[in-house]
Automatic annotation (TrEMBL):
It catalyses: L-seryl-[protein] + ATP = O-phospho-L-seryl-[protein] + ADP + H(+); L-threonyl-[protein] + ATP = O-phospho-L-threonyl-[protein] + ADP + H(+). It is an enzyme of class 2 (transferase). One of its GO terms (biological process) is maturation of SSU-rRNA. Residues 416-429 have a biased composition (Low complexity). Residues 65-342 form the RIO kinase domain. Residues 242-264 are annotated as: Disordered. This is Serine/threonine-protein kinase RIO2. The lineage of its organism: Eukaryota, Fungi, Dikarya, Basidiomycota, Pucciniomycotina. It comes from Rhodotorula graminis (strain WP1).
Length: 431
C-alpha cells in the first residue's frame, strides 16, 4: 500500500478529531458505529458526517454497512496518517520520501527531519495477507471485536522498538531506534546493502566468524533473532571501489589481469591520515565488511520452548548461504547446548525488554499470532505469493472515479468455530 504523504498536513481540525475518535473506537470495534464516533469526538452529528466524508474521500476511513448499524472502519491509510502526524508533532520527522522496501508484513520508507537528516520508517502490516483466515482465532482479539490487524501490527512495532533499543544500548550492531508510534517505528538509516546483494567478499571466513559471534553473543544475552539471514543483515562495506571490483573478478578476468600486469599485484589503497589508520584497524580486525542486524519482531528468548530449533535455524541459514554464495564451508559452528549450557549470561536482555514496558502477555499474544501466521502461510503457499488479501486501500486506489460513498457490505455473522490451536511452524526432527 502506498503511503500518501501529501495529505499529511492538509486535514481540517474537525476531521482530525473525528479520525482520532474512529481510532479510539477501533479498540473495541472493528467497525465503529457512526454514533459512537460522534460521541467520542464530542461533536454535532452534522459536523461529524462532513468530517467522515472528508476522511473517507482521503481513504483514511472506510464506510461499512452491516446488518445492524452503519459505521466506519479505520483503514491502514488512516492509521499511517495518525502515526505520521504523531512523529511530525514530536519533530521526529518532517517529510516522507521513497519507499525502499516491501516485506510480507511491513513497508519501509526513507523519512527525514527538518534538517534533511534521513532516517528509516518501518510500518508493520501484520495480517496483510493471511489475516482473514486467521482472525477467527479469537485469542488474538482482545474483546473479540477489536481490529486485530491494528492491535497486532502495533504490538510488532512496540516489540521491535523495545528489542532494538536494548540491543543498541548494549553495543550490538543494530540501527539506532529513534521513535515509535502505533504500528510504526523510526530508526537510523543504515547506508549499506543486504548481504543478499553481495556477490563476493575478500575473506568469507572473517565475515562468517563475525556473524556466528553475533549469534553466540545474542544467545549469551538470552536472545535468539529467529530470522538471522542474508536479508536481515546489512553489510557496511569499507572496501574501496577498486577492491570491490577485484573481489568480484571471475577466474577468467583474474587470469587476464595477471597476464596483463605480469603478476597478481595487490590493489593499491590510496588513503591518507585518519582514513588510512581506520582502514588498517579494520584490516586487522577483519571488519572491512561490517554487518548490521535488523528486523526484530520475531525475536525469542533462549528460554522459549523452541529456542534450540530457532537457534539452529539461524546458524544453519548462515552456513547454507556461505556455502552457496561464497563456497565457504566450515565445520566450526556454534551449538545451542554448548552456548547456553553453562547458564552464564553476559546480561539478561530478555528481562530488560520485559522491563521496558513490553508486556509479557502482549509478547505471548504476538508470538502465538506469528507462529500461526507462519503455519498458515506454510499451508497456503499460493496466498503468500499474492499481495491482495486485506489490502483494500491499494486495490481501490486504481479506481479514480470511485464513489466516495461506496459502502462495504459485511456479514455480521461470527466466523464458524475454528480450532484454537494450530500446529507450530516447527521443523521435522533433525533440523
Ligand atoms: P521485513 O520485516 O519486511 O523483512 P525489514 O526490517 O527486514 O522488514 O526491512 C526490509 C528491508 O528494508 C531490508 O531488507 C532492508 O533492505 C531495508 N531496511 C530496513 N531497515 C533499514 C535500515 N534501518 N536502514 C537501511 N535499510 C533498511
Ligand atoms: Mg526482513
Amino acid at each position: 500500500m502506498k503511503l500518501d504523504a501529501t495529505d499529511l498536513r492538509y486535514i481540517s481540525s474537525d476531521a482530525f478529531r473525528v479520525l482520532s475518535a474512529a481510532e479510539q473506537g477501533s479498540k473495541n470495534h472493528e467497525i465503529v458505529p457512526s454514533s459512537l464516533i460522534a460521541q467520542l469526538a464530542g461533536s454535532r452529528a452534522g459536523g461529524v458526517n462532513k468530517a467522515l466524508g472528508e476522511l473517507a474521500k482521503k481513504k483514511l476511513v472506510a464506510k461499512v454497512q452491516n446488518a445492524k448499524y452503519e459505521g466506519y472502519r479505520l483503514t491502514y491509510g488512516g492509521y499511517d496518517f495518525l502515526a505520521c502526524r504523531t512523529f511530525a508533532k514530536r519533530d521526529t520527522i518532517y517529510s516522507v520520501g521513497n519507499q525502499i522496501g516491501t516485506g510480507k508484513e511491513s513497508d519501509i520508507y526513507v523519512v527525514a527531519d527538518d534538517e534533511g537528516q534521513q532516517m528509516v520508517m518501518k510500518i508493520h502490516r501484520l495480517g496483510r495477507m493471511s489475516f482473514r483466515a486467521i482472525k477467527s482465532k479469537r485469542d488474538y482479539l482482545r474483546k473479540g471485536q477489536s481490529a486485530s490487524w491494528m492491535y497486532m501490527s502495533r504490538l510488532a512495532a512496540i516489540k521491535e522498538y523495545a528489542f532494538m533499543k536494548v540491543l543498541h544500548d548494549h553495543g550490538f550492531p543494530v540501527p539506532q531506534p529513534i521513535d515509535q508510534s502505533r504500528h510504526c517505528l523510526i530508526m537510523e538509516l543504515i547506508d549499506a546493502f543486504p548481504l543478499r546483494q553481495i556477490s563476493a567478499v575478500p575473506s568469507p571466513g572473517a565475515l562468517y566468524s563475525l556473524l556466528m559471534d553475533m549469534i553466540v553473543r545474542l544467545a549469551r544475552s538470552g536472545l535468539i533473532h529467529g530470522d538471522f539471514n542474508e536479508f536481515n543483515l546489512l553489510i557496511r562495506d569499507h572496501r574501496t571501489e577498486a577492491e570491490k571490483d577485484r573481489d568480484d573478478e571471475t577466474p577468467d578476468e583474474r587470469d587476464a589481469r595477471v597476464a596483463r600486469e605480469g603478476g597478481d599485484h595487490p590493489v593499491k589503497v590510496e588513503l591518507e591520515g585518519d582514513e588510512y589508520d581506520e582502514r588498517r584497524r579494520r584490516e586487522k580486525e577483519g571488519t572491512l565488511l561490517e554487518p548490521v542486524l535488523i528486523d526484530f519482531p520475531q525475536m525469542v528468548s533462549t528460554d522459549h520452548p523452541d529456542a534450540e530449533y530457532y537457534f539452529n535455524r539461524d546458524v544453519e541459514c548462515i552456513r547454507i548461504f556461505f556455502a552457496r554464495r561464497f563456497k565457504y564451508e566450515s565445520s566450526v559452528y556454534p551449538k545451542f547446548t554448548a552456548v547456553v549450557r553453562d547458564g552464564v549470561r553476559e546480561f539478561d536482555l530478555d528481562v530488560e525488554v520485559a522491563a521496558s514496558g513490553f508486556k509479557k502477555e502482549d509478547r505471548r499474544a504476538l508470538e502465538e499470532y506469528m507462529a500461526e501466521l507462519a503455519a498458515h502461510d506454510a499451508a497456503n503457499p499460493q496466498e503468500v505469493a499474492s499481495d491482495e488479501e486485506y489490502s483494500d486501500e491499494s486495490a481501490a486506489s486504481g479506481d479514480e472515479d470511485e464513489d466516495e460513498d461506496e459502502v462495504e457490505q459485511v456479514d455480521e455473522q461470527d466466523d464458524p468455530a475454528a480450532p484454537t490451536s494450530a500446529p507450530r511452524p516447527r521443523p521435522a526432527a533433525g533440523v
